[in-house]
Specification:
alpha+beta, 22% strand, binds guanosine-5'-monophosphate, binds zinc ion, HIT family protein
């Protein structure tokens, strides 16, 4: 599945270059263009699903293990003190790009990230 008007489809499938920190057959993880903290990344499925409701269970089941692998590695690379995983569904919940994505936000002691 793919949406020709979706920027995250193009990024996830490598048609637009991005700062990729992880890639496998199903997902790409990229650094966020407007990071809430150093190392803020987004996990994108390569297939287009607008939000969590549209995400097939099979893909959903891979999201957390994949995020776990990435943040476990990144916490050592970044030296952060914690991590928030955030996932917005719907405009009122803060979703601005309608291609499912999981925010992986490193946290640092005394940072002032407001979620
Ligand atoms: P949402 O608000 O939908 O949960 O998150 C969308 C996120 O995507 C935002 O944090 C925003 O900074 C990021 N973003 C939007 N457009 C781009 C882009 O073209 N490239 C990258 N790397 N991040 C983007
Ligand atoms: Zn898409």
């Amino acid at each position: 599945m793919r949406d020709d008007n979706c920027i995250f489809c193009k990024i996830a499938n490598g048609e637009i270059p991005s700062a990729t920190i992880y890639e496998d057959d199903d997902f790409r993880a990229i650094l966020d263009l407007g990071p809430a903290s150093k190392g803020h990344a987004l996990l994108l499925p390569k297939e287009h699903y607008a939000d969590l409701y549209a995400l097939p269970d099979e893909t959903a089941a891979k999201v957390l293990p994949t995020a776990k692998k990435i943040v476990s590695r990144m916490k050592d690379v970044l030296g952060c003190d914690g991590y928030n995983l955030v996932q917005n569904n719907g405009e009122c919940a803060g979703q601005t790009v309608f291609h499912f994505h999981l925010h992986m936000i490193p946290r640092y002691k005394d940072d002032e990230v407001g979620l």
